[in-house]
Amino acid sequence: MNVALYGPRATRWAMTERKRPAVARDRRVLSIGRSQLEWKRDGLTISIDEVSAPWPRRLRGTVRVEPTGVNAREFELAARGGHLWRPIAPRARVSVDLDAPASRWSGDGYFDMNVGNEPLEDGFIDWTWSRAALGAGAGVIYDARPREGGPVSMALRFNRDAEFEMAPLPPPAALPRSRWRVPRATRADDGIASISKSFEDTPFYARSLVSGKLFGENVASMHESLALDRFAHPLVKLMLPFRMPRR
Is the peptide bond before 101 cis (omega within 30 degrees of 0)? Predict the structure, then answer.
């Protein structure tokens, strides 16, 4: 269970790898160690009970995700490896109630999933993704470079009921590299975007808040850049257990 918390009073990260006996699943519930995701009629309840890394501190509480609509469509990112992406809840109301650290808030959110039958680094060179809340829904931009076949680029505009249209691709917008020199780029109506805040900056991954104009609106997008050639480097693999301990 990967949990990343960013805030003025506390920043925590947890992603503990566990063995098969620690995982259980049925149609509604996925349990990983002491944490659990349960899909109910009105949304998703995420019960978190983790220890952060690299500094061991408790990370415990509940997150509720209530979609305004549910999207059933899956999108193929790469034919080899069966890599699929499904933006389940492009727009959702999220409520956070944490005991450790003590934190409560609610606001706009998003919920998606990726699935494949091979490691990501075997299927892709890199990708960038971003999601922004729009006045009447949400917008998602995806640019991926599979190892086989041509690039995959999508611009999706969702309404509040999670119905979508494939929009024309906005022009590319350059962004500065991260401190670890991970390439970052996005798309914007006028080809101009900027980094408002950096949340994660690692040798192979950057998560940022990006400002720009998308589908005619000024937006703040959650953005990620993933460099999988870097992730596959043996030195990076040696570093992973410091942030992803194994139990």
Answer: yes
How confident is the prediction for the chain on average, in pLDDT?
96
Q: Which range marks the domain in which residue 90 is found?
A: 3-243
Task: Report residue 48 as tokens.
Answer: 């978190």
Could you tell me the CA-to-CA distances from 247 to 29, 57, 144 in Å, in that order?
Answer: 22, 16, 32
Structural domain count, the chain: 1
Interatomic CA distance for residues 224 and 144, integer angstroms = 12
Cβ atoms 103, 9 nearer than 8 A:
yes
User: At residue 39, does pLDDT exceed 90?
Assistant: yes
Taken in order 196, 229, 120, 147, the sign of the CA dihedral is: positive
How confident is the model at residue 79, as a pLDDT?
Answer: 87
The whole model's pTM is what?
Answer: 0.94
Measured distance CA(184)–CA(173) in Å, rounded: 9
Measured in Å, how far apart are the chain's first and last C-alpha atoms?
Answer: 13
Residue 42: the pLDDT is 86
Residue 233 exposed, middle or buried by CB count within 10 Å (0-12, 13-18, 19+): middle
